[in-house]
């Protein structure tokens, strides 16, 4: 009951979809939750099936369904408060799958934030011959190395953004060793001119290599609160970089 009352209080809510390694309790994730919480956002997160203490076996479809279920759970309890979706790394694939479905059924979130995103899983894997991003994926051995099962995994952010209509913010560090910076920039260059974003702003924020934020430390940026306030605070169309 406490959770339900809290969600109905007048604070925006961020549904956080985590990346491939570890659980919802990973250090860098908890640090980001603290930052977001200090800015006045509720943060709701969970482990996909097969991660953490969640039962089941991971699959792209299952992970997307899990995210949809949690989104609907939040919406049923959040009143008129804005709900934003934040995906990181592999979680950006879940996020764009989810938001594409939400837009198709005409219940879009109030904004989508993609931190360290790739274009699609094949391009991400090509940039890492040893498949860094998959290494910690539960069931990695069979799930990705069997060509029959791996061919069914797309996480096609580049295709999904063409069917998404809500404000989009992309954050990427230039020195990211896991998802190359140019994949995030390429995703922005696909999204910004897309017809689906005609009435919404699309923004790309790079973080210079000298800052050392790499793949999972953008939460350390002292600029992050201002970036989020400015992006989430207004919703008129504005394509900026």
UniProtKB/TrEMBL annotation:
UniProt GO molecular function: monoacylglycerol lipase activity; phosphatidylcholine lysophospholipase activity
EC number: 3.1.1.23
Record-annotated AB hydrolase-1 domain positions: 14-117
Catalytic activity: 1-(9Z-octadecenoyl)-sn-glycero-3-phospho-(1D-myo-inositol) + H2O = sn-glycero-3-phospho-1D-myo-inositol + (9Z)-octadecenoate + H(+); 1-(9Z-octadecenoyl)-sn-glycero-3-phosphocholine + H2O = 1-(9Z-octadecenoyl)-sn-glycerol + phosphocholine + H(+); 1-(9Z-octadecenoyl)-sn-glycero-3-phospho-(1'-sn-glycerol) + H2O = sn-glycero-3-phospho-(1'-sn-glycerol) + (9Z)-octadecenoate + H(+); Hydrolyzes glycerol monoesters of long-chain fatty acids
Keyword Metal-binding: no
Localisation per UniProt entry: Endoplasmic reticulum membrane
Membrane topology: Single-pass membrane protein
GO CC aspect terms: endoplasmic reticulum membrane
Matching Pfam families: Abhydrolase_1
Protein name (Swiss-Prot/TrEMBL): Lysophosphatidylserine lipase ABHD12
Organism: Macaca fascicularis
Class of this enzyme: hydrolase
